[in-house]
Input
Amino acid sequence: MRGRLQVSPRSYAVVAAVALVALVLIVFTGAAVRVTGSGLGCPDWPNCYEDGRLVAELNSHAWIEFGNRLLSGFVGVAAIAAGVLAFFRRPFRKDLAILGAMLPLGVVGQGILGGLTVLYGLAPGWVMGHFLLSMAILIAAAMLAWRARPDWREDAPPAADLKTTRAVWLTAVLGGLTLFVGTATTAAGPHAGGSGTGDVVHRLDLVGEDTLGWLIDRHSVIASLLGLVAIAAWWLARRAGADASLRHRLTRICVLVGIQGALGIVQYQLELPAEIVWVHVALATLVWVGIVLAAVQVGLPVATRARDRAALRAPREGREARATPV
Output
């Protein structure tokens, strides 16, 4: 079968891109389930109801949750396709096979974690884990989509210098920390996921009644640091003449982080309306994907340093060879 079915690099790149888009969309719909209070619209799992019924009743909250489950099916197909077809890509590449295999494994993990989240009544810890696992899967999906491009080469010139590379990776670290604290903030906020169905869901309680305010303060500080470091990475990339696509990506990241900051202030002043919270989560997902792609594009700082040293050493060795008498 492996000899009969062969996938071209261009076709597999499309499969990887579709999987990435699908995994982003499922985060969007999952956030919609949360902020509309539809988390227990289907109160059982894997069926919608305890009596064995799979399809949701005719009410909006049940269908919002059921629709998210249906989209999960498409996401599963896309992830499985990315994982399986990596082994039929010609030429075969081990790195794509490993990354591709991570996607269906991650989706299976998400399905199990999502079921436990429902069965445990949307407890904050389970909901946080469900969202953060989505962000982890997006790392593998973004890496796969980037490396699956037909023109990708292992020995390609570095996209940026060492300083820019370090700044991009610091942006990634702060981006991950911002996501974690932001997820905790949402877990302490008013959007528990069960309000639409009248279910009472306990909120995250770290420091007593002021947990939400305490987390908002820390989230805003870390997000501000993220914005400053992202701007620094953008400035360094422009100053050093980094790859044009990287400069454009960093520009988009800075713009989105700026919008996120303004949106965060607005939603706080308006006492966290559900619609704005959903937009905030959706944009946070796009920022995260952009940051991951930027980090993948520049490569590890260690690799960049090694390439820079090799580039400096090559002309010197050439001069020494020409100066050596025959």
Notes: Residues 211-239 form the longest helix (29 residues). Confidence is low (pLDDT under 50) at residues 314-321.
